[in-house]
Known about the structure:
Elements: H1 2-11, H2 16-35, H3 37-41, H4 44-48, E1 53-62, E2 68-79, E3 85-91, H5 97-113, E4 120-125, H6 134-148, E5 157-160, H7 167-181, H8 201-218, E6 228-231, H9 236-247, E7 251-257, E8 260-263, H10 270-282, H11 289-293, E9 298-301, E10 318-320, H12 330-338, E11 343-345, H13 354-362, E12 366-368, H14 370-373, H15 376-390, H16 396-420, H17 427-445
Parallel strand pairs: 3-4, 3-5, 6-7, 6-10, 10-11, 11-12
Antiparallel strand pairs: 1-2, 2-4, 7-8, 8-9
Helix pairs in contact: 1-2, 2-5, 2-17, 5-17, 6-7, 8-9, 8-15, 8-16, 9-10, 12-13, 15-16, 16-17
Amino acid sequence: MNEIMEIVRSKDPAQREFHQAVQEVVDSVKPVLDRNRVFRKEAVLARIIEPERVIMFRVPWLDDQGQVQVNRGFRVEMNSSLGPYKGGLRFHPSVNLGIMKFLAFEQVFKNALTTLAMGGGKGGSDFNPKGKSDQEVMRFCQSFMAELFRHIGPNTDIPAGDIGVGAREIGYLFGMYKKLANEFTGVLTGKSLNWGGSLIRPEATGYGCVYFAAEMLATKDDSLAGKRCLVSGSGNVAQFTIEKIIELGGKVVTLSDSSGYIYDEQGVDLEKLAFVKELKNMRRGRIQEYVEQFPNAIYTGAEPARKFNPLWNHKGDCAFPCATENEINGHDAQNMLDCGVGLVSEGANMPSVPEAVGVFIENKILYAPGKAANAGGVAVSGLEMAQNSMRLNWPREEVDNRLKIIMKSIHQTCLEASAEYGEPGNYVVGANIAGFVKVVNAMLDQGLV
Ligand code: NDP
């Protein structure tokens, strides 16, 4: 195991997020390798940590002033043993190869847990859509797709959205793909409803994350009704996490963006949530404006130098980190426990640093890692692919029911795997082992390729 981590670190010393994601899986699957000698003999760990293919490309585009801008594009095709590569595209200035590889690696296990036939991949660019005009975003997306289109396809690799890539970007990307490939296929998911999208896809990650939390609470004969919830982020995942928490009777008191967070003691109700959706999705504004509209709430600006994030230092029963990776450090985790948090369900990918995960596990709270709790998004993307293949649209209730069944099944799979390997109730171990075993068995069936 140490040897594997040595290889990962020495090959790509700067890819810290990738090291972190691999370390967590390596730590979890040791007992699996001990029980299955053939896994060791076939060097499955060394194989699964190496992407099948990495595509990196130049994305030149013209801004509104007629100036040439150049960004870097990525697609990491990590593993296709269970199906075509599947995973989102992220447009954010922090994007680099290490972040793409960590996200693609996580995606492989997540997709395996969904029960659908999907391999894992991830892509994106260091392009920052913030402050750009629609025309600039369109020109960027068209240039990005002018290269990506030759590597993807409905049976090869099917990208979707992630941070900075929503309905607008998916539309521009799809338009360019269609023009270049001269075919109308389900090559992207997260499409708009009137041209091939699925009902419930925008809601799926947030709803799924709350369904997973409800499943965890049910193991303690408890529910979300009356629970105070801390939520971070205010984008796609956060918005629909809040919507479902409200529907199930919980009270949400925080939300945030990268500039700061708001605390609303009275709770975010559906009217306030509608304001947030309009603010973030249409006007692309900042969360600070929430307090201008609802003056009882308190806004606190972000201070990266702070030892802890005050958002996680409010009284609460449940926490739903829905912004980005490594947003909860060890201090935050301890503060959460001191404030009464007994459940963490991760809408974001890898939002908790390893020290924070350690705090949750040692204290035996209900803790669901992103690769299990936020798998609802890619699961409904899989359902969108199925509907596209059949040229059918399922009604809202049908997709939502399937999402619920999938989240229930992921929860059960994690519990069973954690119990089988001697750590009952440890969802990290359960998710890693169940995903790993499924992918590795498929890899072995398919030979050394
Ligand atoms: P959005 O772009 O819609 O929203 C992201 C939110 O997180 C915004 O509020 C953003 O603030 C905030 N944020 C982003 N980066 C930072 C940062 N460095 N520090 C603080 N806040 C930050 O993205 P999504 O809601 O789609 O994605 C959120 C998380 O969920 C990501 O980790 C993503 O990988 C994960 N995820 C998303 C899925 C999906 O279906 N969309 C599926 C599974 C996981 P600001 O407005 O200031 O940028």
